[in-house]
Amino acid sequence: MLAVLSKVLAIVVGVVLGAAFLLAGLGLGLSVLVVIILAVTVLLRRDWVPVIYNLRSLAVRKVTTAVTVAGLALVVAVFAAMLILNDGIRTTLAATGDPMNAKVIRKGSQVEMQSGVQPEHLRLLSGQPEVALGPDGKAWASAEVAVLIYLLHEGAKDDTDGSNLSVRGVGPAALGLHPPAQLEGRMFRPGTSEVVVGKALVGRFAGARIGTSMRFARRDWTVVGVMDQRGSAFDSEVWGDVDQMLDAFSRRPAFSSITLRMKDADGVTALARRMETDPQLNTLEISTERRYWQKQSEALGKFVTFLGTFVAIIFAIGAVLGAMITMYAQVSARTREIGALRAMGFRRRAVLVSFVVESVILGLVGGVFGLGAASLMQLKEFSTTNFQTFNEVVFRFHLTIDTSVATMLFAAVMGFAGGLLPALRAARMPITRATRGG
Length: 438
Prior knowledge:
alpha+beta, 13 helices, single chain, ten-stranded mixed beta sheet
């Protein structure tokens, strides 16, 4: 009974909060529309209060302006960091795929770690007309095995200080399909217990350095190279010989996936149609390699977006209240100025638009500082767990133009919301009362 009541209460609270946010959003949108119409009217009637007046007013009251800007900047930094984090994860995983490569896994598998592809599938797919030929004249196809291992961080004090890593077994064809931008040391020799590690692992995990060894799958593996995969997810992987990996992890004869190089961009669609009608291949699914890796970022991206948006909304409420208090204080301190503006012939709508503009300026200044603070996170690498594969992925925050525009728009909306009610109070103040300063 208590569990049922808890669920009902959770649903009611969710509906009430959803309705409240919906009404608040509709009210804010309608207010923006009304103020824009008033601003256009003021411009057409040449009744605009000079913006220099607002800038000087903010400069004169340095302390309150600085405190409000700092509060707004903090909220904007949180909001921008959420967007930059999401962009960084998507960029890292999307950069892993080559537009001319296709990824084949077992139908129903979300990731290649869950997949099983047979050697017969490799033979059949290699003979398809859409598959390009490699430098050796053979079909450019690579059967790969991907597994998770648990490895301790460098300098770990106990067995709990570690993370999951992705280990990939590849053959000679994979080096052409996923060529490293740079290789320090050398590539592993086929048939040996040698591995190369992604550059993002160096200094983060025990043994991830040239000349040292890593122990997993009941075997010691010698690190002979560090590969630079242009900031992609491969930079967070360990690569070794596919046959050695199959034996070490007892995966033989099943591979995890097959990577194909297509002759043209339409090859994936044509091959997918043929696979659906082929009883020997219809247990598999194919997609572009880029699309496959983009899907790996969806679950994590949704979580980051939800959590970041929730935190930003909570912080934004406080920042809007701070801006509102500041603008109310501005109105109270500038009562005589408001009266003088009205006596000079400025209409109520001109005063309202002027104070709203002043509050939006506050928001935009806070937005600039907040965005600047969040952008500094691009200077450092971060790691997180991919919710699809549960392995650690190292990435950089990535600031885009779209994120910058969205962040500044968010800052302007906060400024608008904080200044609307004080602006209404200023506009409705009678001239006689205002000129007396009371």
